[in-house]
Amino acid sequence: MNLGRNYLALAVKDIAVSYAFYQQMGFEAVPDCGSVEEKWLIIRNGDIQLGLYQDMFPTNIITFNPPDVRYIQKSLKASGIQLDQECDESTNGPAYIMLKDPDGNSILIDQH
Question: pLDDT tens across 18-77, in order?
C-alpha cells in the first residue's frame, strides 16, 4: 500500500506567527501550496515537510498524500480498520479519507 509523501498538519493559532517561527528554523514555503492569507501553508526544510493550518482542524493530524486513496480505502476496510470519513469509490481524482489510530490520533489520507 503506497501512502505517498507524509507530513504533520499542525493546527496553529496564528499562522503568521507560526510561519515566522519555522522560517527561523530554516523552513521555506512550498510554491503553490497555500499562503498566510489563505490560512494554510505547506513548508519544507530538506526532506521534512509540515502543514500549518489556522482554523481548519481542532488538533494536529498526520497526513499522507497517496497516488490512489480509493485503493487504500478498500485495503483498510478489508483489513477491518474503521474509517471516520470515506471517499466515493466510484469517482476519480482528488479525494480523502480520515481515520484514527488506536490512541485517537487523527490521520488524513488526502489524494490531490
Answer: 999 999 999 999 999 999 999 999 999 999 999 999 999 889 999 999 999 999 999 999
The number of beta carbons lying within 10 Å of the beta carbon of residue 4 is 16
Domain count, the chain: 1
For the chain, the 3-state helix, strand and coil shares in percent, each to the nearest 5, are 20, 40, 40
**Which CA distances in Å does 99 have to 7, 29, 54, 76, 84?**
16, 27, 21, 10, 5
Find the CATH number of the domain harbouring 10: 3.10.180.10
- The domain containing residue 73 runs over which residues? 5-111
